[in-house]
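Private note to self, pasted from the team thread so I don't lose it. Backbone tokens:
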């Protein structure tokens, strides 16, 4: 008999406890070899004064089991509470968000009956590092961070996922026509890694047209890999256009842990009425079973669930006159799935999970890249209500003519600018400098002249190519 796999389970808030109970009932009836460690997270924990909504003993359980099956929670309004999901993802290093988006035509109404794609979103970098500042009364500034190790890991994950799940193509979306360095790096690494997988097709779209194509003809896509922000938005688009966000589960995977959940929230108005659809959480649990190397149980449950919805046994949220046969509550839905364990769907496509390989590739680490890195200047951000002529004169006087350019909101306004350009109170001023002491000297000269310096950013060339 297989050894039981310990998992951490949180029943959450609102409809969470009902859909979690339904999910666990199905898992246990199907023979999942799991040992449940129940933890408390969410509203009660937040209101008890824990800003992240997670207690210390929950972290201990998560570090021990490394597998988290999580029901939705309610984040109390106001009070500076931090997102529990972001905290778990970043603390445990859950870098890959994996969301299968599948249409269940003709059982669930959708404009895209053929769609069957998987969105793989980078989960830790990009604009979500939370490096964000208010710099002047009028200006806030957020930093988009894309790294080679972070991008290599998620892109390689996407290609490995495609190979292990018999998928044929991986598509990346970036905005590298505008964000030439950050998104440019993601695209470059995508092209490099794609070469290592000649058996998998690869494709890149600029995110705007890619998003339009994804929403219009999702059946053209197979696996889609995205930096964090585009992935956050488009994974919800992907789920929505399947016909029901209530049927989508998601996995957050890291090297040292994984979290599985439905994509919907705690739906407080439905709580306690036995009306919630447990399918999103159940499908997340199926992803979990595959992750913990119980693919047979994952297959058994997924096919029984497909058979249940195919027979028209539907909770209220997906019930449709003429298509559905029977409207059921949460508990009766779970019973219907249990009754069909061992059956397979006849109209919908049946599934078969195969043992997921141990992900040794993830431990290879990033390829070291060497480049000659040379300091060539510094951009200094200044808060000023001066006009560009007065400001440029002050900067030239202060630094003895090292000023090369002034930008406002990314537009060059000096030496040659247009009077039509709207200028705000934050100016990015570029100076030439070829050593750290020279940068420090420029900063001192600016401060001594009474200029209000907000920040500075060194400018480097890499193998003679500007990195700015
Ligand atoms: P929601 O997803 O809870 O509800 C949106 C709509 O979908 C509501 O009409 C709801 O009744 C319905 N719905 C959601 N899940 C359903 C299900 N399983 N079966 C049937 N109908 C379902 O989103 P919301 O109303 O914006 O948020 C409610 C709370 O959930 C908030 O406190 C929010 O912070 C939290 N939330 C938590 C998570 C999470 O824990 N991952 C995610 C999103 C929202």
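Design output:
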């Amino acid at each position: 008999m297989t050894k039981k796999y310990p998992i951490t389970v949180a029943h959450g808030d609102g409809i969470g406890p009902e859909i979690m109970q339904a999910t666990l009932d199905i898992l246990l009836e199907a023979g999942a070899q799991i040992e449940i460690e129940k933890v408390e997270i969410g509203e009660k924990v937040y209101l008890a004064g824990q800003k992240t909504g997670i207690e210390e003993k929950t972290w201990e359980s998560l570090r021990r089991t490394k597998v988290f099956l999580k029901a939705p929670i309610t984040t109390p309004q106001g009070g500076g509470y931090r997102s529990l999901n972001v905290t778990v993802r970043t603390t445990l290093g859950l870098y890959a968000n994996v969301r299968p988006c599948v249409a269940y035509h003709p059982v669930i109404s959708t404009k895209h009956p053929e769609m069957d794609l998987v969105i793989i979103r980078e989960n830790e970098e990009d604009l979500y590092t939370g490096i964000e500042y208010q710099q002047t009364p009028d200006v806030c500034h957020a930093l988009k961070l894309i790294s080679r190790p972070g991008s290599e890991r998620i892109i390689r994950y996407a290609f490995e996922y495609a190979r292990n799940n018999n998928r044929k193509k991986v598509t990346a979306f970036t905005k590298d026509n505008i964000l030439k360095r950050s998104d440019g790096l993601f695209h470059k690494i995508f092209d490099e890694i794609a070469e290592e997988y000649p058996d998998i097709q690869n494709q890149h779209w600029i995110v705007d047209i890619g998003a339009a194509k994804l929403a219009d003809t999702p059946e053209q896509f197979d696996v889609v890999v995205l930096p964090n922000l585009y992935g956050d938005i488009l994974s919800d688009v992907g789920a929505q256009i399947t016909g029901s966000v209530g049927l989508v589960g998601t996995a957050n995977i890291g090297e040292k842990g994984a979290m599985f959940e439905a994509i919907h929230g705690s739906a407080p108005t439905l709580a306690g009425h036995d009306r919630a659809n447990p399918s999103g959480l159940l499908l997340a649990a199926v992803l979990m079973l595959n992750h913990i190397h119980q693919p047979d149980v994952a297959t058994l449950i997924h096919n029984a669930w497909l058979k249940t919805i195919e027979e028209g046994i539907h909770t209220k949220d997906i019930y449709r006159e003429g298509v559905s046969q029977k409207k059921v509550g949460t508990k009766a839905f779970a019973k219907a799935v249990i009754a069909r364990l061992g059956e397979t769907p006849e109209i919908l496509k049946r599934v078969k999970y195969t043992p997921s390989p141990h992900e040794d590739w993830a431990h290879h680490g990033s390829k070291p890249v060497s480049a000659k890195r040379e300091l060539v200047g510094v951009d200094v951000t200044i808060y000023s209500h001066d006009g560009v002529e007065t400001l440029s004169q002050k900067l030239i006087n202060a630094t003895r003519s090292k000023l090369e350019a002034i930008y406002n909101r990314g537009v060059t306004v000096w030496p040659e600018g247009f009077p039509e350009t709207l200028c705000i109170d934050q100016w990015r001023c570029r100076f030439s400098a070829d050593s750290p002491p020279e940068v420090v000297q420029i900063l001192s000269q600016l401060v001594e002249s009474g200029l209000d310096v907000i920040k500075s950013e060194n400018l480097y060339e890499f193998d003679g190519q500007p990195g700015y």
